[in-house]
Amino acid sequence: MVNLIIGNKGSGKTKRLIELVNSAVEKSNGNVVCIEKERLLTYNVNYRARLVETDHYNVSGYEAFYGFLSGIVAGDHDITDVLVDATLKIGGKDFAALAAFLKKVSELSDIAEQDFTFTISADESELPEEIFTFCKKI
To answer: What is the pLDDT of residues 48-92, one digit of tens each?
Structure first.
């Protein structure tokens, strides 16, 4: 399942994501991965969650981002949840490319049987409607 936390800057998306990461760590029987663009959440996220910075690996754009996520999922079959902050900063503000990316992630989620959650810093009305056919807003 792919979940989206949508809202404009300053609306509490990252705070909500941190709560979800920490909650997932407490109830997961496997590993929880939190992905961020740059090191910002170190002291907010439970130490048992794997915190990964995309800038450290020079990940930029949705194709590279999808490959990065696929590699993480393929490398650890015990992952139950992948939570991502600052999706548009990593992939870009092209909403059509975002929709294609999320569709592929939805398929990856089904194959790997893992949940993905993304924060998206935009107004919901800006996003293509098709996104909500394979993603759930939380």
So the answer is: 999 999 999 999 999 999 999 999 999 998 999 999 999 999 999
Residue 3 CA to residue 121 CA, distance in Å, equals: 14
Determine the angle formed by the axes of helices 95-112 and 62-75, rounding to 10 degrees: 10
Structure tokens given for 46: 């439970």
Q: Which residues touch 61 (CB under 8 Å, ≥6 apart)?
A: 91, 92
8 A C-beta contact, residue 99 and residue 135? no
| 13: number of Cβ within 10 Å | 21
The SS3 call for residue 85 is coil
CA 121 from chain centre, in angstroms, equals: 12
Whether the pTM exceeds 0.90: the reply is yes
String of b and e for 90-128 (b: at least 16 CB within 10 Å)? bbeeeeeebbbbbbbbbebbeebebbbbbbbbbeeeebe
